[in-house]
Amino acid sequence: MAVNVEEVSARLISRGMELLDPYAGWSARHAMKCRLCGDVFQASPAAMLYGTRDIVGCKKCAQPTDLRRRTFAAGHGGSALMSKMDGQSLSVLSASTNMSGDPPTADSSLQESASEPASDEAATPERAPSHVASTAAVTGIGIAAIALEIGVTKDTLRVWERRYGFPRPVRTPGGERLYSPDQVTKLRLVKRLLDAGHRPSKVLGQPMNVLQHLAQSSGVGRDAPDAELDRLISLLRAGAHDDFRIALLKRATRDGLQRFVLDVAAPLSARVGNAWTAGTLQVYHEHLFSETLQSTMRNLMRPLQDALRGRRGHPRVLLTTLSGEGHGLGILMAEAMFTLSECECVPIGLQTPLHDIADAVAAHEIDIVALSFTASLPALSVASGLTDLRELLPPHIRIWVGGSSPALRRKVHDGVLHVPGLTSIDEAVEEWRQAVVR
After folding, report:
1. Is beta strand 141-142 parallel, antiparallel or unpaired with respect to 30-34?
2. pTM above 0.85, yes or no
3. DSSP string, 171-183
4. DSSP symbol at 132
5. Helix (H, G, I), strand (E, B) or coil at 86
6. Mean pLDDT of 138-142
7. Contacts of 196 (CB under 8 A, 6+ apart)
8. Number of domains forming the structure of the chain
9. Which domain holds residue 363?
10. pLDDT of res. 309
11. Of 218, 239, 267, which residue is a domain's last?
């Protein structure tokens, strides 16, 4: 079938995707770039254009959306949608088509699935529907952003709302849920309590002060005493970024790589997470912390990694996270411990598709694939991702997993090794070397 390359490229752009190699083939899987988030992924143009209607962006961004319908209803033509489908001007188009009064953000038009009924409370009359706000009063965070932030599915949030009466989002006239900052803070704490083993029925209906008392009594979010770490958190909270960076660098220089990872990076990351859950640190604080810590650790690791790279030593370890797992500090700390065990590390970034992991394993002659999981990735996604990856890789390639995900407390796949902590990495590496020698 003859294909007009320009027409195909234009139609993909209208869905927020850019064909990186327009001449690679109509039905073959090859690289595309999401123009909403910048991620590069593998797909065929035919599947993206005809396989699923009304999808905008990559799998991470894409939700069935009525953006096109609202565009045309507001009097805009298709060319307006195509010309404004880049990350910066999408918000302008969303605002111009926003007849329901949603906040004019690039994400707001993608947050609620069009397949979801306008009101899913009708099937459960025991609960009153969420409050429908007037256009002037609509403010808050959408359901997709909340689900991603706290690590639950949108369906779970809807079930909690119907069954337990919390959360209680406001509804726009168009039916989309918006959550207030207070509810977001409470949801973070609820998720921590659930991860610690508490039942939804025991926590979701409780006021915030009761949840905080429950967290304190059960040790959730409790930091071990450390005046120096407390001072670092205070600097971060006060916005003294330069002072925070210098203090972190001095501690790293004094302690060395191993002690810095175990005594500073790991507990400080937990402290930042607890403060974020309690609402005393904001998302931008967490991002500043992550950037500074990553830079400090990379500078500490670089001399030893450069020396090891020329030796072609073993094992060769590929480090990444699966799609949906966007937290990178855990896998970075694991990389530091593998480096100290004289492994040659091949970090390939975060959220790597499974087939790309398999390709990287073959290209770099990898012995071990190391993956990190936090509680943000649902347990089913962890289990299915590990099962699928194990099937893709040859049997002699080891898969090692670690992190704070509750899913790792259960038995993982038979062909996957759970390494329970950073200090266990050196022992696991030594056992691998002994097994290879035998």
Report:
1. unpaired
2. no
3. E-TT--EEE-HHH
4. B
5. coil
6. 75
7. 218, 219, 220
8. 4
9. 311-437
10. 81
11. 218
In the listed set 200, 218, 236, which residue is the last one of a domain according to the structure? 218
Rounding to the nearest 10 degrees, give the CA dihedral for residues 10, 11, 15, 17: -50
207 and 281 assigned to the same domain: no
Give 318's pLDDT tier (boundaries 50, 70, 90).
Answer: very high
Strands 177-179 and 141-142: antiparallel
155 and 212 fall within a common domain: yes
Task: Write the pLDDT tens digit of every residue in 41-88.
Answer: 666 655 555 443 334 455 555 543 444 444 434 444 433 433 333 333
**CA dihedral (258, 262, 264, 268) positive or negative:** positive
DSSP sequence for 6-75: HHHHHHHHTTTEEES-TTS-SSS-EEEEETTT--EEEE-HHIIIIISTT--SSTTT-----HHHHHHHTT
Q: Using CA of residue 120, residue 124, residue 125, residue 131, what is the dihedral sign?
A: negative
Query: Facing residues of 400 across strands?
Result: 370, 417
Residues 332 and 294: their CA atoms lie apart, in Å, by 7
User: Does some domain include residue 283?
Assistant: yes
Both 14 and 74 in one domain: the answer is yes
CATH number of the domain to which 169 belongs: 1.10.1660.10
Q: Can you give the CATH number for the domain in which 320 is found?
A: 3.40.50.280
CB–CB of 392/361 below 8 Å?
A: no
DSSP state of 325: -
Are 318 and 382 in the same domain?
yes
Instruction: Find, among 369, 356, 298, the residue nearest to 329 by Cα.
Output: 298
Please report the pLDDT score of residue 104 as a whole number. 33
Partners of 19 in the β-ladder: 32
Tokens 């009525």 belong to residue: 66
